[in-house]
Write a structure and sequence with these properties.
Elements: E1 3-9, H1 17-21, E2 31-32, E3 46-47, H2 60-70, H3 75-79, E4 84-92, E5 98-105, H4 111-120, E6 128-130, E7 133-149
Subcellular location: Cell inner membrane
Pfam family, one: TonB_C
GO cellular component, one term: plasma membrane protein complex
Length: about 150
């Protein structure tokens, strides 16, 4: 029996509103849903809903390929045959950088930590645009960890 790793990428733009409302750190960042974006370089507001969400360079296929190339299935998860979906939120800033990474749905045996490691290794994204203005935007990325046993 051999175990091979694979990763399936869920819907890229899943926004889990309830997780933001219950986020204890929510008070540190102004989360906006309908404010008209201003062309103010000092505006550090973070948007939950935008007309054009942030995008990984090259699109969703490139994101899937990036994750598949960089995934290191944790040994403990392999040994315990642990699988599951890790949902991670992060902010894509106006310059495309990623920060404020938070696991909002955890899976044991190192899978949550691996999801965060992959996101930290990502290149800059194409930032969100709202009402014609580049804005900071929160993004939720669910990553499915699945083992194929043959």
């Amino acid at each position: 029996m051999s175990i091979s790793k694979s990763i399936c990428l869920g819907m890229l733009a899943v926004l889990l509103c309830s997780s933001f409302v219950n986020d204890e750190n929510c008070h540190k960042t102004t989360l906006l849903t309908s404010k008209v974006a201003q062309e103010d370089p000092e505006d550090n507001s973070v948007y939950l809903y935008v007309e054009n969400p942030p995008k990984f360079p090259g699109g969703s296929n490139a994101l899937t390929n990036f994750i598949n190339r960089n995934l290191k299935y944790p040994q403990k998860a392999l040994e315990n045959l642990t699988q599951g979906r890790v949902s991670v939120s992060f902010v894509v800033y106006k310059d495309g950088s990623i920060s404020d990474i938070k696991v909002i749905k955890k899976v044991k045996d190192g899978l949550s930590e691996e999801a965060v490691r992959i996101i930290k290794a990502m290149p800059k994204w194409k930032p969100a645009v709202h009402h014609g203005t580049i804005v900071n935007a929160k993004y939720v990325l669910p990553i499915d960890f699945k083992l194929k046993i043959s």
